[in-house]
């Protein structure tokens, strides 16, 4: 009872602080303290106090901690709500939810304990959580403003064994530093705050070569040449003019199945033995990359696993060497034309190309002495499209489309056909995979929307959105009904690099609208005319 | 040209019910193409209320090689067992067997699913000969079963063999229901309202319903059951059944004859002698011309309505003379309508802004209230935003979302950029605004070229 009263007092003192207007909520306190012991045991205590300012701000009255169930324990997790009238309520343990964190894996040892409450404007939500873990990693990160809300006080403190070096890096913030405590005050609202503290204890990962050495050590024992590996490699390259492409295509076809175990002990960086992955017929990104590496090794081709971040291009900071910045593994293969990066987890991008998300991104080879290097930028994808449309006086439209795509545009179509069989059934597809190139042909009929009894309203252009730059070579021919005149055409600026002309034909023939788009600087854009509708 | 399409299918699914504690399954699956390998090469078995034992799995390659699943590849997280079959390729077969092991004896009736997400070529279910099978929603329940779709899934209901005829059974059940009802229906003083709808709405709106987590109710409010309808009236709180009993007592006090009605689902069958087929309850008031039905124990319904899982369903009305089997009436579309009022203005740049009011009545309102009672306020707002994709929705007012019986009223400001297409001389205005026709005021100098059609051309000023 006394402990509760003391906590309530602490909480209520902080809750008395004023808040700025204009934000949905105000973080009065965000605090994390870590006690690291020589044994590898770490105790992390997190506290937070947040005032809800608007109805929308109730969404921030939540708390959650993620932990590895195999080596961590939630020692305590308490939460309170102080109503505008001053009534204090502590939430019962049954109001917390504890569940497996699964991001598409077959299995994960990660769990999350959460609570989310309904808080009216003027309420103050607070929580305190303590987690103990046994972990091999002695690196920490702390975000001063994870939700972008205004923050009154954000603090991280570290207690480490005597004699251990502490190396810290601050990104986009200058907090007050007192020993091993970093405190930032009165941070204004900043929707995409990147203010962060990164700490390394000890000297395990002082430099990027340190990280590369560690990764290489993790991976080496998994790439043994066994009789099964050698035999399969030989059978796959038999009668193939391009051995690397054949092996790459084989590994691409293997199922992607991820099992997330022992992440706190480095399990997330250790590929499974290539022989096992071959026998099972599935693996995660590092398993597949390692299997390909081993199959290539059987053919005398050198390659290296590569650590990369597939979801956040800015995540890897050169100033802070750490393996935890990476979340994906690909392969770099030595070819007569130089080093080629390849992602065997991507079933749609052939060897010789990288998915757009992995181009021009900081990456690290699993090789002793390696340092960060950017993956190359690939060639611009190309789409060559020919569209023929016929419009009748009754407002019906019939069309046929022939399209050839290369690069990531072709990969995007492959993914779409694989994910949506109905889409694939409407098309005739000729795919040159594992070489580059995909050809589509389809016919369709539709009715134009009626825009009054005397107007036909036509927006004949096909929407296509791609994740990277695409060079379009497009010709659209629209045969118009004789009974109608072309009354209006959009400006050519509407077509972003294309040109629309009306070709008159001999009397008795339907007039023809022709749009041609050829690639030049303006047409190279990340999204292709998103306002166009079919 | 004959086009052959191959898809994954379950070649055989066998289920053996082995009372008292076990049900075993054996599944053999054929994969046609790479998509099947991706989709069905991983198997997830959810097991809530029992444990999985005697597990085995293997894949059989097109060439006939059998690869067993290593035990280490099994993953069991809480109530989910999952595994990826090894070395699976197009044309392979997958086989797995397991036993559901229960801590308590398996009780009847037992429902055994017959369909799954894939078509099933052959389905076998075995059970003790003393049990009675009842098949639902299938013509041929042992072979060529289609995959689960929007139609009710096929299942097998196993019951104990009846020791008495269905007529005798239901007669006895109606007598028991009537006796219990009469015992519970102790008198209450009559209320000023004589109209039955008014009495039902009094019970629905003035007596808190302890089973629903409305915004103004906490679990501690109704710690003990009410012994009589008078207690329910005095305390002002009750369960759904207690509120219905109060209504019945008030209706009787007003001079009406009342009966208890047990309501089933569309799967109800008289020949299945199981009272669990009738899980819901309403109150019937008899008139010379028939019956009127009330359920004030459901707080979110409007006057005169039954719940969505009650209307149109088979029911048993318990009388002293025996059971009366009937079908409950259904409400009309007008009773469950949604009314929308819009005040929208089109701008010269093609954007639309204005205010929208939407009112939900009847079961439409009840559905929104039920959903909202489990949501924090931020999520209720997010639901509204998500109904208007591409638009900016602000100043939301949400009324009666937790008020029994009242219509739900939502108002908000809306802004949609680039709603109308633009050409040099015209705007093209789609009239279907988020699923309903709407009228728009035009910017100065703009006139409709036509007011017919789905897209209205508007001449822009020179």
What does this structure look like?
- The complex is a heterodimer of chains A (534) and B (462).
- Chain A has helices at residues 2-15, 208-220, 227-237, 243-253, 274-280, 285-298, 408-419, 421-425, and strands at 25-36, 41-52, 62-68, 72-82, 88-90, 97-100, 107-108, 110-116, 124-134, 139-143, 151-159, 166-171, 176-178, 181-187, 196-201, 255-256, 259-260, 282-283, 303-308, 328-335, 338-342, 362-365, 373-374, 381-391, 396-406, 428-431, 438-447, 464-479, 498-503, 512-517, 525-528.
- With 534 residues, chain A is α+β, with helices and mostly antiparallel strands.
- In chain A, the strands form seven sheets. An eight-stranded mixed sheet of chain A has the order 5-4-9-2-1-11-14-13, with helices on one face.
- Chain A is globular.
- With 462 residues, chain B is α+β, with helices and mostly antiparallel strands.
- A seven-stranded mixed sheet of chain B has the order 5-4-8-2-1-10-12, with no helix packed on it.
- The A-B interface holds A 55-59, 61, 100, 106-108, 116-118, 120, 253, 255, 257, 259, 279-282, 418, 421, 449-455, 457, 459, 488-491, 531 and B 34-35, 37-38, 41-42, 67, 73, 75, 77-78, 82-84, 86-89, 376-379, 381-382, 418, 421, 423-426, 428, 430, 449-457.
């Amino acid at each position: 009872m006394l402990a509760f009263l003391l906590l309530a007092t602490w909480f209520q003192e902080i809750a008395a602080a004023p808040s700025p207007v204009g934000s949905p909520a105000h973080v009065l306190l965000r605090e994390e303290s870590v006690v690291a012991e020589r044994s590898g045991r770490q105790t992390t205590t997190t506290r937070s106090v947040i005032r809800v300012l608007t109805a929308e701000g109730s969404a921030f009255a939540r708390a959650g901690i993620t932990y590895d169930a195999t080596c961590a324990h939630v020692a305590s997790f308490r939460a309170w709500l102080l109503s505008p009238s001053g009534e204090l309520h502590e939430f019962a343990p049954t109001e917390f939810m504890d569940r497996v964190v699964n991001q598409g894996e077959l299995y994960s040892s990660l769990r999350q304990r959460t609570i989310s409450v309904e808080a009216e404007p003027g309420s103050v939500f607070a929580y305190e959580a303590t987690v103990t873990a046994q972990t091999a990693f002695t690196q920490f990160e702390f975000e001063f403003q994870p939700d972008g809300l205004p923050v009154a006080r954000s603090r991280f403190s570290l207690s480490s064994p005597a004699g251990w070096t502490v190396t810290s890096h601050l990104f986009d913030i200058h907090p007050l530093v007192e020993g091993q405590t970093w405190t930032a005050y009165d941070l204004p609202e900043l929707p995409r705050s990147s203010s962060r503290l990164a700490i390394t204890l000890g000297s395990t990962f002082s430099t990027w070569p340190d990280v590369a050495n560690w990764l290489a050590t993790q991976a080496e024992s998994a790439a043994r040449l066994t009789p099964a590996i050698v035999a399969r490699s030989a059978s796959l390259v038999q009668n193939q003019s391009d051995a690397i492409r054949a092996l790459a295509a084989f590994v691409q076809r293997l199922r992607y199945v991820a099992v997330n175990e022992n992440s706190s002990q480095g399990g997330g960086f250790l590929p499974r033995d290539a022989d096992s992955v071959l026998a099972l017929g599935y693996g995660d990104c590092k398993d597949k990359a390692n299997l390909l590496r081993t199959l290539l090794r059987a053919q005398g081709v050198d390659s290296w696993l590569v650590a990369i971040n597939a979801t956040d291009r800015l995540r890897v900071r050169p100033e802070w060497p750490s393996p935890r910045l990476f979340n994906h593994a690909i392969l770099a293969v030595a070819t007569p034309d130089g080093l080629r990066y390849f992602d065997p987890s991507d079933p749609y991008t052939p060897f010789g190309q990288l998915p757009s998300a992995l181009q021009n991104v900081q990456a690290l080879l699993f090789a002793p002495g390696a340092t960060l290097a950017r993956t190359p930028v690939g060639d611009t994808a190309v789409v060559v499209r020919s569209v023929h449309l016929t419009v009748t006086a009754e407002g019906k439209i019939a069309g046929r489309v022939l399209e050839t795509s290369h690069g990531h545009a072709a990969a995007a179509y492959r993914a779409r056909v694989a994910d949506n069989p109905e889409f694939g059934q409407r098309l005739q597809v000729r795919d040159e995979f594992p070489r580059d190139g995909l050809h589509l042909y389809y016919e369709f009929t539709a009715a134009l929307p009626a825009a009054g009894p005397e107007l036909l309203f036509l927006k004949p252009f096909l929407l296509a959105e791609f994740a990277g730059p695409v060079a379009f070579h497009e010709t659209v021919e629209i045969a118009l009904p004789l009974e109608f005149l072309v009354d209006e055409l959009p400006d050519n600026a509407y077509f972003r690099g294309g040109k629309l002309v009306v070709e008159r034909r001999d009397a008795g023939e339907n007039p023809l609208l022709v749009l041609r788009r050829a690639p030049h600087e303006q047409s190279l854009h990340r999204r292709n005319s998103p306002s166009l509708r079919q | 040209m004959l086009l052959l399409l191959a898809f994954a299918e379950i070649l055989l699914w066998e289920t053996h019910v082995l009372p008292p504690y076990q049900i075993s399954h054996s599944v053999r699956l054929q994969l046609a193409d790479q998509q099947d390998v991706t989709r069905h090469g991983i198997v997830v078995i959810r097991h809530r209320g029992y444990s999985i034992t005697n597990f085995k799995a293997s894949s059989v390659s097109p060439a006939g090689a059998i690869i067993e699943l290593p035990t280490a590849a099994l993953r069991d997280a809480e109530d989910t067992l999952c595994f990826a079959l090894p070395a699976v390729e197009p044309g392979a077969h997958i086989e797995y067997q397991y036993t559901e092991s229960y801590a308590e004896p398996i009780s009847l009736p037992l429902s055994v699913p017959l369909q799954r997400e894939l078509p099933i070529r052959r389905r076998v279910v075995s059970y003790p000969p003393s049990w009675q099978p009842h098949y639902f929603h299938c013509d041929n329940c042992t072979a060529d079963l289609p995959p689960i779709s929007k139609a009710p899934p096929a299942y097998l209901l196993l019951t104990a063999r009846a020791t008495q005829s269905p007529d005798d059974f239901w007669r006895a059940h109606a007598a028991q229901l009537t006796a219990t009802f009469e015992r519970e229906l102790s008198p209450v003083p009559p209320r000023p309202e004589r109209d039955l709808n008014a009495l039902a709405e009094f019970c629905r709106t003035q007596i808190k319903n302890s089973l629903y987590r409305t915004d103004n109710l906490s679990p501690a409010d109704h710690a003990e059951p009410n012994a009589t309808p008078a207690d329910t009236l005095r305390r002002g709180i009750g369960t759904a059944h207690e509120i219905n009993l109060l209504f019945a007592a008030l209706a009787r006090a007003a001079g009406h004859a009342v009966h208890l009605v047990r309501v089933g689902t569309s799967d109800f069958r008289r020949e299945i002698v199981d009272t669990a087929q009738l899980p819901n309850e309403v109150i019937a008031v008899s008139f010379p011309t028939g019956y009127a039905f009330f359920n004030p124990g459901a707080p979110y319904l409007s006057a005169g309505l039954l719940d969505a899982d009650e209307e149109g369903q088979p029911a048993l009305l318990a009388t002293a003379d025996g059971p009366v089997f009937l079908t409950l009436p259904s409400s009309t579309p007008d009773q469950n309508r949604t009314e929308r009022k819009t005040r929208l203005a089109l701008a010269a740049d093609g954007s639309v802004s204005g205010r929208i009011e939407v009112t939900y009545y009847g079961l439409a309102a009840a559905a929104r209230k039920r959903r909202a009672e489990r949501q924090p306020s931020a999520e209720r707002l997010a639901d509204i935003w998500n109904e208007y994709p591409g638009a900016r929705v602000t100043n939301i007012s949400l009324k009666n979302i937790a008020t029994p019986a009242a219509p739900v009223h939502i108002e908000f400001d809306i802004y949609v950029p680039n709603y109308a297409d633009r050409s040099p001389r015209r705007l093209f205005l789609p009239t279907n605004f988020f699923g309903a026709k709407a009228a728009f005021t035009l910017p100065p100098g703009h006139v409709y070229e036509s007011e017919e059609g789905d897209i209205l051309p508007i001449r822009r000023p020179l």
